[in-house]
């Protein structure tokens, strides 16, 4: 029987358990070519890291999702631009998205955790993702961006609907398009209000910020650039953190000794979050476009190919991590590529880390142990994020 390396990102079994396939890719086909879809995949830590740094040959400008390359960005988004163009927007947002704004969210996060988790104390169980993990990030991002509090529930509802309608489909359905239009109109209305009546918030700061174009022109961001940035931050920051928290509920149950370690010594929680990101990467596949023929490990990736950088596989690379398939809080290998690397290194990494820490502190303080009904776990089925959509826990 043929046992050639094989990985199909669209088959549910590979979405749920990709690790055996990825290990075979790393060992036998470090430059994997999927003939059915025509893409290439890099799976070793070092290759993923080097390709992430090499934006000239591995371009983001024609899209970053496997099934969407090549495409033109509908509105300007830095995640779909290469340096030096990318850096123009990144520099502006770096000035607006300050450590102060992130740190200020901690109290709000704790308050939200209390609101969501307290009702379940003594209840016997709840769905950790549906009733907590996927709710928290939307509220946090809405606070960060400065959306009025009375709109937060509506925003979460749209975000939920978008996620559920996307499941299992390729391309964009009319329902999703409509939801996108609805949210964009909402963003635009807030932007217009902030332009008329500036506040001490992120959107006002974006509207007032000046950028220097590549030709030296100094100007403000236009509406489309601001909408692109808000949309990018909302999308990138909601789904990924929801999946990270879902993984926390599964992995800490599977590795109960490690969980006990955290209950006894909560100061270990930040490294536990880092190890969680290595172990189960919420965003395991970054798409790129080969701008020229690229030679690697004796193979040629032809110019014009779609290339998958498998950050999820890189986190399990035995060449980089001892006992890569074990979740070990005390391992000293915090370096991982689950937030990407180089120019596109995740803008929200500090926020995601803070959310992970606060959520776990608040969870473990109330529920030091739990078990999971594995047969009832449901999965998010997209080829950009990977993780559970529903994790019923009981205690
Ligand atoms: C655990 C949670 C998160 C994970 C695993 C994650 C993962 C990633 C990865 C892998 C990239 C690089 C994409 C690429 O190279 O093409 C990225 C970029 C990005 N992330 Fe995150 N992310 C998370 C949370 C967030 C949050 C909370 C925000 C919002 C503040 C955010 C905003 C962004 C943005 C704006 C980019 C694009 C950066 C650029 O192109 O310069 N992410 N993220």
Structural summary, described in words:
The chain is of the alpha+beta class and 395 residues long. The chain has one domain: Orthogonal Bundle (Cytochrome p450). Helices cover 48% and strands 11% of the residues. The protein contains 16 helices and 14 strands. The protein has helices spanning 12-16, 19-28, 45-53, 85-96, 99-103, 105-117, 129-133, 136-145, 152-166, 174-196, 202-208, 223-254, 256-264, 269-279, 311-314, 349-366; strands spanning 31-33, 40-42, 58-59, 125-127, 210-212, 218-220, 285-290, 294-296, 299-301, 306-310, 371-372, 378-379, 388-390, 392-394. A five-stranded mixed β-sheet has the order 1-2-10-7-3. A three-stranded antiparallel β-sheet has the order 4-14-11. β12 and β13 form a beta hairpin. α6 (105-117) packs parallel to α16 (349-366), α12 packs across α13 (256-264) and α12 runs parallel beside α16. The protein is globular and about 60 Å long. The termini are far apart. The mean pLDDT is 93. Bound molecules: protoporphyrin IX containing FE (HEM). Protoporphyrin IX containing FE binds next to α12 and α16.
């Amino acid at each position: 029987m043929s046992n050639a390396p094989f990985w199909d990102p669209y088959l549910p079994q590979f979405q749920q358990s990709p690790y055996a396939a990825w290990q075979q890719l790393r060992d036998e086909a470090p430059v994997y070519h999927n003939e059915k879809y025509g893409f290439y995949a890099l799976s070793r830590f070092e290759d993923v890291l080097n390709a992430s740094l090499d934006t000239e040959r591995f371009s983001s400008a024609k899209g970053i999702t496997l099934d969407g390359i090549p495409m033109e960005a509908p509105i300007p988004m830095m995640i779909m631009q290469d340096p030096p163009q990318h850096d123009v927007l990144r520099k502006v947002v770096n000035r607006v998205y300050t450590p102060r704004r992130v740190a200020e969210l901690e109290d709000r996060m704790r308050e939200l955790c209390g609101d969501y988790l307290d009702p379940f104390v003594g209840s016997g169980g709840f769905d950790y993702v549906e009733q907590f993990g996927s709710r928290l990030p939307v509220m946090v991002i809405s606070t960060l961006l400065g959306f009025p509090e009375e709109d937060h529930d509506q925003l979460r509802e749209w975000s939920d609907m978008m996620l559920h309608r996307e499941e299992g489909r390729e391309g964009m359905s009319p329902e999703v398009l409509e939801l996108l239009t609805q949210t964009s109109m909402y963003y635009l209305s807030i932007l217009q209000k902030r332009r008329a009546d500036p506040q001490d918030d992120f959107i006002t700061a974006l509207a007032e910020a000046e950028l220097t174009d590549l030709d030296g022109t100094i100007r403000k961001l236009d509406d489309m650039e601001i909408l692109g940035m808000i949309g990018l931050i909302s999308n990138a920051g909601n789904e990924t953190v929801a999946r990270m928290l879902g993984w926390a509920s599964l992995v800490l149950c599977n590795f109960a000794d490690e969980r006990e370690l955290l209950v006894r010594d909560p100061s270990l929680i930040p490294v536990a979050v880092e190890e969680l990101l290595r172990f189960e990467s919420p965003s395991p596949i970054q798409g790129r476009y080969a701008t020229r023929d690229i030679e690697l490990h004796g193979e040629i990736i032809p110019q014009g190919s779609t290339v998958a950088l498998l950050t999820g596989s890189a986190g399990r690379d035995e060449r980089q991590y001892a006992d890569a398939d074990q979740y070990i809080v005390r391992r000293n290998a915090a370096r991982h590529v689950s937030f990407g690397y180089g120019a596109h290194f995740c803008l929200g990494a500090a926020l995601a880390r803070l959310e992970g820490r606060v959520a776990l502190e608040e969870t473990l303080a109330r529920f030091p142990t739990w078990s999971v009904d594995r047969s009832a776990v449901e999965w998010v089925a997209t080829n950009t994020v990977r993780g559970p959509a529903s994790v019923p826990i009981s205690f």
